[in-house]
Amino acid sequence: IIGIETFSSLWLQIKIILVFFNMKKKIAILGSTGSIGTQALEVIEEHFDKFQVEVLTANTNADLLIEQAIKFKPNAVVIVDETRFEEVSEKLWKHDIKTFTGEEALAQVVEMDDINIVLTALVGYAGLLPTIKAIKAKKNIALANKETLVVAGELITKLAAQNGVAILPVDSEHGAIFQCLTGEIQNKIEKIYLTASGGPFRGKKTEELKNITKEQALKHPNWDMGAKITIDSATLMNKGLEVIEAKWLFDLLPDQIDVIVHPQSIIHSIVQFEDGSMKAQMGLPDMKHPIQYALSFPFRFSSKSPRFNFMDYPQLTFEAPDKETFVNLSLAYLALEKGGNLACILNAANEIAVEAFLTDKIKFLEIAEINQKCMEEVAFIKTPTYEDYVDTNTKTREFALSLIS
């Protein structure tokens, strides 16, 4: 994990403060009305004595944001949709909650002095700039927005190292790797295995996927997630993005990251060390566990979540992913190996393609076709700057939209 040795030393000091002065960890949740954000608030509600909500933000869901703010009483909220600002502000002023609006406010609010940790639960490219701002303000990051490292992993890791900031993974797979590595700082990783459920179309071939509907694609067998990530899971793009994210989180080479399909979603990921031994993190598929661990680290807090029973799962099975049918996983490995801005191109194209599929403008298999075409046609930059990432993102989206038109 980025800055983990510095972070471990820092936490020795913070532990003393937390234990002897019973201080609450003050949290900003970017994207509090989404799937990760709402579950994070459930975790916080269960541990009101440990956490305090400092900031909540939402894109357009003003009604839920207002409800959350009144219940958790943050210092400030941000509603990105400026047309809903007056409504939110009017409802919250009497509760002494500051209200801001716009994308600029979203990027600035993470710099508030009282914040200890920023949970980035935004969807897609939108999480990049707020995360950069939070890192520069020396806030530790609980990262649920994998696209931040996919788009600009090299930039983000350098900034985190320069600012002594830890990036704690919230994805169940990366959270599992993180837990397996705790206490193993001196032990060399040989390989990691990211597990995948296989999504709703595991075992199907290309011919069977031609007429898939969005309703079918949104029926994930194990996880309850937002629409974007659920479609990404169905195309295996989500696993591809996780492969790229893992490279930056754990400083690995492409051939050190493997994907195995595990339909039961009980083993969340595995680390293999250089002596051949392996550690796996297991549990029922429940996002509240990795959210809580990222927020509570280095402690483990109690949880009321259901417990795993081996007798309910007499068989745990594994198989290789079908990269020929689910092309997006192969595209992600290509982006990882080539580097530069190629992962940024892939992410931008995929965001446009998934939205087009969800609005019935393209077919299921065309998502990967658009992604591949953008990777072939949009200009490749070997050593991109932040401005290059912004420009690449814009140009890729424009090109992808032209393909859809």
Can you offer a commentary on this structure?
The protein is α/β, with parallel strands linked by helices and 405 residues long. It is 46% helix and 14% strand. It has 16 helices and eleven strands. A hairpin with a 4-residue loop joins strand 10 and strand 11. Helix 3 packs parallel to helix 4 and helix 10 crosses helix 14. The longest helix has 19 residues. The termini are far apart. The model has no long low-confidence stretch (mean pLDDT 91).
Give a short overview.
This protein has 405 residues and is of the alpha/beta class. It has helices spanning 4-21, 35-46, 62-72, 85-92, 103-109, 128-136, 147-163, 172-181, 214-217, 227-235, 237-250, 288-296, 327-338, 342-358, 366-377, 386-404, and strands at 25-30, 51-58, 76-79, 98-101, 117-120, 140-143, 167-169, 189-196, 257-261, 267-273, 278-282. 46% of the residues lie in helices and 14% in strands.
User: How many DSSP H or I helices?
Assistant: 16
Q: How far apart are the termini?
A: 41 Å
Widest sheet: strand ordering: 4-3-2-1-5-6-7
The tally of strands reads 11
Question: Averaged pLDDT, please?
Answer: 91
Taken in chain order, the helices and strands follow as HEHEHEHEHEHEHEHEHHHEEEHHHHH
> What percent of residues are in strands?
5-15%
Uncertain runs are none
Radius of gyration: 21 Å
Structural class: alpha/beta
Q: Classify the helix fraction into a percent range.
A: 40-55%
Q: Major beta sheet, specifics?
A: 7 strands, parallel
Outline: globular
